[in-house]
Amino acid sequence: MKKFSSANPSPSEEAMFIDHQSVRWSSVRSSSYWLHKRFHYAYPGPIRELRQRLVVVPPEQYGDQRLSSFAVHVLGAEHTASSAFDMFGNRVLSFHLPQVEREVTFEVSLALERVGSPDLLPHLSDAQARAFRADTPLTAPDHRIAQVARELAAQHRDPLALAESINTWVYGAMRYGAGATTVQTPAAEALAIGEGLCQDYTHIMLSICRAAGLAARYVSGHLLGEGGSHAWLEVLLPQGSGWVAMPFDPTNHRRANLSYITIAVGRDYGDVAPTSGSYIAPYQGLLTASKRAGLVRVEYAVA
Q1: Which of 62, 94, 213, 303 sits at 20 to 30 Å (Cα–Cα) from 24?
Q2: Rounded mean pLDDT, 121-135
């Protein structure tokens, strides 16, 4: 086992989780979190030249979110590791495992803090925002999306009101359910199906926003509790000489609040896939993933 870390978040914090469903999030001044993510790969036999890419650790600072410490462990095979930041500021961890016998596990632990202040929303320059105005293969609009964008844009001249209306429209147009789509399903196809998961809701809203003239970007992160990753988006709204990123979660029909943990941002899912890679072998592996994220401290603002 080898560790790749800035420090080692204490797993004992997991036993101290606060019930996040009882928190009055609108009154929270600051909060702290602990997160553990596990990816386990099993193969029918040995594999060679595994090159794994993980986008699972956020940058040190993202808006009001600060990374206190993190640790990444690789169990089951010798490896080398490196870390870099991509064009969007996301931390990308790369691993090379020359040989894996049958199993390998990647474990990630994070300790984070957030401060409830509207002044700490992520800000972007014109040059940074430009990348989030263009369509991608996963967000290209079809006739229906283009028509919805025109109709909503005609009703709402204010960018924030337009974003709110798109969030409401997507929530009403989709039914949440697994099995109908994959992470490679384009927005137009997912909308035609009418059913999907969080990445589908997000891709559809991204597509409508961009068709309506709003720059927007995909967010990969987590909700508190157990389960998988979550996806939502940030609509870029004009502020001063730049842009401010306002988070929306169309899957849950709300704005993202302090109960959300941001890991990475991009044009669509392809930029921020939590795990991806390649290897040499005549067979496929089986991935099992789990996550637990919890609140370990909360401070309320004084009325």
Answers
A1: 62
A2: 89
